[in-house]
Amino acid sequence: MDKRIIVKAHARERLEREKVYNITEETLIEIIKSPDEIVTGRGNRLVAHKVLDEDYILRVVHEESEHEVQVITFYRAKRERYYGGQR
């Protein structure tokens, strides 16, 4: 992916609050570049999934334009609820 990736303020704030999960800005960028799965979200948003373990995934909500990707937010979620892929 050659698009510029921008981590927006809300996602950065979550990084500060979610330090217990050891998620960094680089982690979010890597998930955008190499997700286990991408699904459509609300409006024109996409959600990149990365499997964390048997029970949880990390969901990275983002918007793409022709030249950039904006990371809006992220959160840990139950794998069984959102993940459709096989792993």
Strand arrangement across the biggest beta sheet: 1-5-4-3-2
Class based on secondary structure composition and strand pairing: alpha+beta
What would you call the quaternary organization?
A: single chain
Rg estimate, integer Å: 12 Å
Output mean pLDDT. 92
Low-confidence stretches: none
Q: In CATH, what is the homologous superfamily? A: RelE-like
Q: What is the beta-strand fraction? A: 35-45%
Distance between the termini: 23 Å
Figure out the total of helices. 3
Characterize the main sheet.
5 strands, mixed
Helicity level:
25-40%
CATH architectural name: 2-Layer Sandwich
Total domain units = 1
Top-tier CATH class? Alpha Beta
Strands, count: 5
Helix/strand order: EHHEEEEH
CATH topology: YaeB-like fold
Shape annotation: globular
Q: What report would you give on this structure?
A:
This protein is an alpha+beta fold and 87 residues long. It has a single domain, classed as YaeB-like fold (2-Layer Sandwich), CATH 3.30.2310.20. 25% of the residues lie in helices and 40% in strands. It is built from three helices and five strands; from the N terminus they run E-H-H-E-E-E-E-H. It has a five-stranded mixed beta sheet. A hairpin with a 4-residue loop joins strand 2 (37-40) and strand 3. The longest helix is centred in the first third of the chain and has 9 residues, at 9-17. It is globular.
